[in-house]
Amino acid sequence: AVGAPEPDIAVAIVDPASCRILPDGQIGEIWVDSPSKAAGYWGLPEQSAATFQARAHGSDRAWLRTGDVGFRRDGQLYITGRLKDMIIVRGRNIAPNDVERAVREHPAVRPGGIAAFAVREGGEEHIGIVVELKDPTPTATDAVARDVLARVADLWPLPRTTVWLAPPRSVHKTTSGKVRRAATRTALLAGDVDVLGQWRA
């Protein structure tokens, strides 16, 4: 938890698709309203209205959309990630770091070498994962890929999941070591990641 809001700060957890305020315990986008909220972006009225004057169903406030994702419980605020990284499969929100956590304990997976992201195919999103192997030996890849897919399916029994196995240093990262999921997806789809193969469940 990052704490409870001050009395003059209103915080709501909102479904970004329906703009409905969610009850405690459900994950959604964090919206904020307070006297310290900025008026908007300089010279960008449309972007300002969308970000700083957002409207939620059943509320007369003009909310700031933070782009952060989280939930509230017992008056405390918990931050779970960023909206732009969220994977949405048939209305279900899946945090990419949860997918990565499910995979990272596999003995063949290189620590920190996992990037989960949304892949759009057939008109809907599904989970895509780039997984770096400690020892990218071709004879072991099929068993590892199937085990990774099984670990994901145990937690999220979804219509489709795709995994790409790759050699070390295939996942894009910031200079501080944080995974750059969007950059990894862009490079993968552009053919700039030297994958060992693709597997789908």
The outline comes out as: elongated
Cα-to-Cα separation, first versus last residue: 35 Å
- Major sheet: 4 strands, antiparallel
Structural class: alpha+beta
Rg is: 19 Å
Low-confidence stretches: none
Could you estimate the helical fraction of the residues in percent? 10-25%
Largest beta sheet: what is the strand line-up? 1-2-3-4
Mean pLDDT: 90
Order of helices and strands: EEHEEEEHEEHEHE
Strand content: 25-35%
Strand tally: 10
Number of continuous helical runs: 4
What does this protein look like?
This protein is α+β, with helices and mostly antiparallel strands. It has four helices and ten strands. A hairpin with a 2-residue loop joins β7 and β8. It starts with 9 loop residues before the first strand and ends with a strand. The model has no long low-confidence stretch (mean pLDDT 90).
Briefly summarize what is shown.
The chain contains four helices and ten strands. The protein has 201 residues and is of the alpha+beta class.
Characteristic key phrases:
single chain; four-stranded antiparallel beta sheet; alpha+beta; 33% strand; four-stranded mixed beta sheet
Spell out the blueprint of helices and strands.
Elements: E1 10-14, E2 28-33, H1 45-52, E3 64-73, E4 76-82, E5 87-89, E6 92-94, H2 96-103, E7 109-121, E8 124-133, H3 141-155, E9 161-166, H4 181-189, E10 197-200
Parallel strand pairs: 8-9
Antiparallel strand pairs: 1-2, 2-3, 3-4, 5-6, 7-8, 9-10
